[in-house]
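New here. Invent one.

***
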Amino acid sequence: MNVTGHLAIGAGTYLLIEKHLYIKESTDFTNETLFFSGLLACLFGSLLPDIDHPSSTFGKRVKLISYPLSLIFGHRGITHSLFALILIGYFMLSAIDINHGFTLYQWVIFSMMVGYLSHIIIDYGSPQGVQLFYPFRRNYRFVIYKTPTMQFIIYFSYLSFCIWHYFS
C-alpha cells in the first residue's frame, strides 16, 4: 500500500474509533483538542511501521533509524509484527489509569496504536503480506489487492464509508 492509502485507512479507522469510544465525556480537554491530537497521532502511527524502509515517505525523514532497521530486520519484518504491537500496547497500558479516564497523553498513545494496527492490517492484505510472528520469517497474507487501482478503490471506499458513518 502506498502512503496515501495508509493515511486514508488510518484516518478512516480513527473516525470509527473516535465516534464510538465516547472519550470526550471523561476528560477536561475540548473536543477539538482531542479530535485533532488523536487524528495526527493516528496518521503518524499509520506511517510508523514503514520506518524500516529507507525509501518510504517516513523512512526518508529518519534515515539514521531506517537504514539500520532495514539492514538488520528487512522491510515488513519486526515493525510489521505482533511483537511491535505488543510493545506499543504495553506502553499504552502502563500509562492508562482506568479509574480516572483518558488523559490527552493516553489518547495520543492509543490513537497512534490504532494507526499502527491499521497499517499492519492493510499490509496483511497485500501480496507480500507481513511477518506477524517475527522472528519467524513466514509471511502471512490475505490478498485483497494486487494493483494500484484496486488499492485506490479499497482505501477510497473505506475512507468514504468512514466519513459518512462519522457524520451520520
User: Anything to note?
Assistant: DSSP finds six helices and no strands in the chain. The radius of gyration is 16 Å. Helices lie at 3-21, 31-47, 63-73, 82-95, 104-124, 148-167. Residues 30-167 form one domain.
